Amino acid sequence: MLLIRAPGVYTPQGDTELLASCVRREVLDGSSRVLDLCTGTGAVALVAARTGARVTAVDLSARAVATAWLNARLHRGRIRLRRGDLLAPVTGLRFDLITANPPYVPTGSGTGLPGRGAALAWDAGADGRLVLDRICREAPRRLSRGGVLLIVQSSLAGLPVTLTALRAAGLRTTVAARRRQAFGPVMTAHAAVFERLGLIRPGEREEELAVVRGVRER
Question: H or E segment at 213?
Fold first, then answer.
């Protein structure tokens, strides 16, 4: 899919592709309500929109929201776009599918606040869970009965922590897809930090991506 990407907006990569492949396996139609968090270019939202589902896409970055709007126009995708902090723009609404490709790069240090500028798309604080933990707490409450949550992340950001948190929130949780890939530019730039934290072996430059699938029981 040809996508416009403004400077500073996250470039769709292997994690985007992996999450999109899982969205394609979900049963969606014109009555389905879908929420795409951290939408970036809108790539995953557009995949959901192709099913006829009613899609809302959210991002904290104004530039990302504008980029997703342009891509929706380019591909004639019907997407409702909102700028804001995760689920804040959709207060009181429930969804049949919630997707998220949040920042998950551990930096080894941080203030507990999101990154700024281009770093907003990847900087996830000391342990990589600055946004992931919030999604695990907040998103399950916004699922309709039988609703599905799909989150993609790196194994470096504590995959077992995500699974445990979503199960504690009452979701039936599995790993829907996995993929190993070489580090991209951002991960490579932080490789020394990952080694210091014991997240990778010295000289290792690969990560495992995973999509966690959580289902709210009917």
Answer: strand 206-216
Closest CA to 214 of 156, 154, 141: 141
First to last CA, the chain: 35
**Gyration radius of the chain over CA positions:** 16
Torsion of CA 129, 161, 178, 60, to 10 degrees: -30
Q: What is the pLDDT of residues 57-114, one digit of tens each?
A: 999 999 999 999 999 999 988 999 999 999 999 999 999 999 999 999 998 876 555 5
For the chain, domains (ranges, CATH) are 14-216 (3.40.50.150)
Distances (CA, A) of 85 to 18, 35, 138, 170, 209: 24, 13, 12, 23, 24
Q: Tell me the residue type at 75.
A: H
- The distance of Cα 136 from the centroid of its chain, to the nearest Å, equals 11
Tens digits of residue pLDDT in 7-52: 889 999 999 999 999 999 999 999 999 999 999 999 999 999 999 9
Q: Which amino acid is at 153?
A: Q
Pull the structure tokens for residue 153.
């992340």
